[in-house]
UniProtKB/TrEMBL annotation:
It holds the Pfam family DUF659. Residues 202-297 form the DUF659 domain. InterPro entries: DUF659. This is DUF659 domain-containing protein. It comes from the Eukaryota.
Amino acid sequence: MDNPPTDTPPPLKRNSNDVGWEYGVLCDARSLDKVKCKLCGKEFSGGVFRMKEHIAHLKGNVSACPVSSKEDQEKCKKAVLEGKNKKNLKRKHEEALRAEVNISKDSGTEELERELGALKTPHSQGPIDQYVSSINPEASLAAHTRQQSIHDAISKEKTHVVRQYCSRWLYHTSIPFNAIDNDSFRLFCEALGQFGPGWVPPSQYQLREPLLIEEQQRTKEKLKILEEEWEREGCSLMTDAWSDMKRRSIMNLCVNSRGGTCFLSSKDTSKDSHTGEFIFNYIDQCIEDIGADKIVQ
């Protein structure tokens, strides 16, 4: 008797509680944009949101379903309205959060900034200025010194307030303090500073799927460059043993070359004796995986 096929086609319905999936399916499981109405058979782009508009007879983006009942229409209209209200509430919440961040107000530098504005001198001179202003280099130098002092005070206070926001996020999310020394975090701070106010953080979906896939691909490309270097110039294996917070004994293997040190693998060795033979077998297997001809003695 022939065995039944093990490969099953992917489902044409997303794993979601959205009411729109009661009336539609995906045309292609690999595309989340194109859907098909189960009532009238019409296919269109726009995902499940357009499906709800189609069933609810909402004009503007998609034609109305000729088969949907009044009950179906009201059900989808309610879902669309709730979605819009939820989106508006989220937007207002984000605006309120941004409104709370005022590093000038929080740091108490408003008075200093007003004084700094009063000290500022015009950057350009017109022909009439020679009759209404006097040249006094000593006074100008004193004003400049005072202006620089106020600049430094404002910068110091604002820096402290930004650090408070950063530390508060670390405390609330239980992120280890040593993460602050991570180069990737410093790059993120620099990019955020260059972007300016109004930056929108990535969603959980973006972190789980597209951004993670992009970072995985970037890591593979960097690893490929290192592997090509190992092939040309050779490399060395490095071992490192340590205990984590649960007192598990962890052994790491890294590959070192001119391009830098690359993590290779780790192993929980809590139940193993760290004998010379054990360490030799672990390293020997890694040498085989990399290629013995690439290892430099």
